[in-house]
Amino acid sequence: MMNYDSAPSGPPDDPAVHARGLTVVRGPRTVLRGIDFDVPRGQITGLLGPSGCGKSTLMRATVGTQAKVTGTLQVLGLPAGSPALRSRIGYVTQDPSVYLDLTARQNLDYFAAVLLPHASRADRHAQVTAALADVDLEDHADALAGNLSGGQVSRVSLAVALLGTPDVLVLDEPTVGLDPVLRRDLWDLFHRIATERGAALLISSHVMDEAERCERLLLMREGRIIADDAPDALRERTGTGTVEEAFLKIVDAEKAKEALR
Ligand SMILES: Nc1ncnc2c1ncn2[C@@H]1O[C@H](COP(=O)(O)OP(=O)(O)OP(=O)(O)O)[C@@H](O)[C@H]1O
């Protein structure tokens, strides 16, 4: 997990993430194949696509934890992985990184001390309390993480990423295993973070109804971006009623094109 401090980088109108010709090789496979995309500030960009298409790899490259990355990849005006970005990005992986032998609050206290070393004790305490409230975990703040449910542990991990108000939040399937009410509340939180704090959110999901909640969607297939548009525009230009139908139609069109080659 990585978090924020202060001081914006790059002109405010520039996208938070800017990729051109982004290519990633993992083992013997070229997992991302020269892709172009931008992630605007103040919006939620959804990253959708079948299992294994490269969503997590794209996210890892964005936060600077992926090897063998070529092409252009800038985050807040700096090359991805720059040390100056570590404190500006909140990243939640699919495997929650929390200490199971600490309580939820102790986990947050620990990460606040590591991530916000210059904040006062009172400020860190306030940030921890706010992050616990953001993810609706106040009632479980003093429970050992090892005794929490899977969804609750995921929320501790998300709360860590929220400490300090990051400029860029990269969330890899943050709502897996959560009930519909919690999912709705978290999406409301994501929208508040985007609109009130001006942060850029890049969120991957398998759940197509969540795609409707994003301002923009990147649809991926086999290491390529096959569509980059707003949900309305996607539905309109494919003549479909849902993003899921639009996605399937675009995939079928891609397959038909491949068959002709
Ligand atoms: N360490 C690795 N070595 C070689 N190939 C890998 C490695 N990790 C992942 N891959 C391959 O890279 C491709 C993309 O994986 P990635 O995890 O980015 O997909 P994903 O879209 O996030 O999938 P999911 O939705 O299932 O999480 C997959 O084909 C996967 O098998």
UniProtKB/TrEMBL annotation:
Species of provenance:
Streptomyces smaragdinus
ABC transporter domain span:
17-247
Highest classification ranks of the organism: Bacteria, Bacillati, Actinomycetota, Actinomycetes, Kitasatosporales
For this UniProt record, give its keywords in alphabetical order, as a comma-separated list: ATP-binding, Nucleotide-binding
Return the protein name.
Ribosome-associated ATPase
Gene Ontology molecular function terms on file? ATP binding; ATP hydrolysis activity
Q: SMART domains this protein is in?
A: AAA (SM00382)
Q: Which PANTHER family match?
A: ABC TRANSPORTER G FAMILY MEMBER 20 ISOFORM X1, ATP-BINDING CASSETTE, SUB-FAMILY H, MEMBER 1
